[in-house]
Amino acid sequence: MLNRRHIRIKVMQTIYSFQGGESDSFDKEQKFLLYSLDNIYNLYLLMMSLLIEVQKRAEDHLEKSSKKHLATKEEKNPNKKLINNQVLLMLKNNVLLNDEFERRKISNWELDSEYVEIIFREILASELYSEYMQTKTSNFKEDKKFVIDIFSEIIAPNNKLYDYLEDKNLTWIDDLPVVNTAILKLLRKVKEQSNEAYFLPKLYKDIEDNEYAIDLFKKTLLNQFKFGEIIQDKTQNWDTERIASLDTVLLKMAICEIQKFPTIPVKVTINEYLEIAKEYSTPKSSIFINGILDKLVKEYQESDTLNKTGRGLM
């Protein structure tokens, strides 16, 4: 689910909030980093559970409509296409997924059901729903397309849901695009025969990504004064007070990757931190960071001290 860029962002946020000296013990900060990364999975489960709650709300809506004192013929014999949507039922009846909801205590919509109602009402008012409900039967392909469409066009961009998630956990706003992308990828590739574990993807692609997060955090902090001196040496003509503190963190992390991670290509490191700077720092930060790193890499190349192994890593 997580990519290296988002791991870098999480490490950046943790280091930026970290106040302290150079030490070999960062237990508290490391726990925060790992919690912040693991909490992304809670957001994933929360968004998946919202799809299930929409199906449940649809069931409740049909049941109440059919029991009205003056129910219409249509209400007494409703179109059950939405509540019978095969993908939504696959999620609802997924034992492993529901066990994970319970294990991680994902029960937000029981207390905050008004957000389920907001999403449900937007679905009912949409052209997507109107077109989907023109027939009373469907196949798996059509059901899947409908779920993908309502997620990408109604749920993911919903401003009230966005505000709710921000109130619940501030870091979730940075995580939401990653989670939504992961969910859409799963929905697009799901098949009728997909097993229950399909909707429980791993947070990290592999153990190397997990180790990378911890190593990048520790090695940057353990060498922060050394990296700070390198930055200072390369910015002698700059007013240090005018250098954004976040730029300093990004530079230290980038220098750490260049020096301490021999298998990560230099171009990848530079491009990644430039993109992060564009999104999180000042308008001119990427230009500043690129200039410093470019000078540094050229020096390492000239002195043959660039610690990279394998072809194409320069």
From TrEMBL:
InterPro entries: NusB-like_sf, NusB_fam, NusB_RsmB_TIM44. GO terms for molecular function: RNA binding. SUPFAM superfamilies: NusB-like. The keyword Transcription regulation applies. One of its GO terms (biological process) is DNA-templated transcription termination. Residues 205-298 form the NusB/RsmB/TIM44 domain. Coiled coil: none annotated. The keyword Transcription regulation applies. It comes from the Bacteria. Keywords: RNA-binding, Transcription, Transcription antitermination, Transcription regulation. Pfam families: NusB. One of its GO terms (cellular component) is cytosol. Signal peptide: none annotated. Belongs to the NusB family. This is Transcription antitermination factor NusB. It comes from Formosa maritima.
